[in-house]
Amino acid sequence: MLVVSGCLAGCRCRFDGDSRADPGIEALVNAGGVMMVCPEELGGLDTPRAPSEIRGGDGSDVLRGRARVVTVEGRDVTSAFLAGARRALELAEAAGADRAVFKDGSPSCGVTRIRDGSFTGRSRPGRGVTSALFLEHGIGVASEEAWRESVLGEDGT
User: Fold this and answer.
1) SS (H, E, C) 107-125
2) Could you tell me if residue 118 is inside a domain?
3) How many domains does the chain have?
4) What range defines the domain where residue 128 resides?
5) Which residues, 6 or more positions from 135, have their beta carbon under 8 angstroms from its beta carbon?
6) 42 is a domain residue
7) Global confidence as pTM
8) CB 39 within 8 A of CB 87
């Protein structure tokens, strides 16, 4: 079983109410055997919602209580991000998932990079909360770019 970020499968669950649909991932979902999750919605956050970024570390640091997830207005939403990551993990484990394709750059799903916490659009290396939790529990994670390259080849064809 493969888990994918809902926004990559065309679900309008991003903070801004949009999606980041990937045609290849949408095709996988339509064929079956793929589970869509939006950890932020699973954690009880509305769509649309204020943008959030991790301050003080990355998703692993959030899991250990060393970093926080805050909105652009300064509201602490760490508990919602943790709850959503845990719920996504529960669903993935119940379905027997062993891998996930997540939206890179997200404070939940980022695989190789996340925003830097300044709300200026800058990114830095790091994982989101859900990616970090999945890895800690033995579920492999890949960004949509890495997945695309592995399926289509390095040149995207």
Assistant:
1) CCCCCCEEECCCCCCCEEE
2) yes
3) 1
4) 2-152
5) 127, 141
6) yes
7) 0.94
8) yes
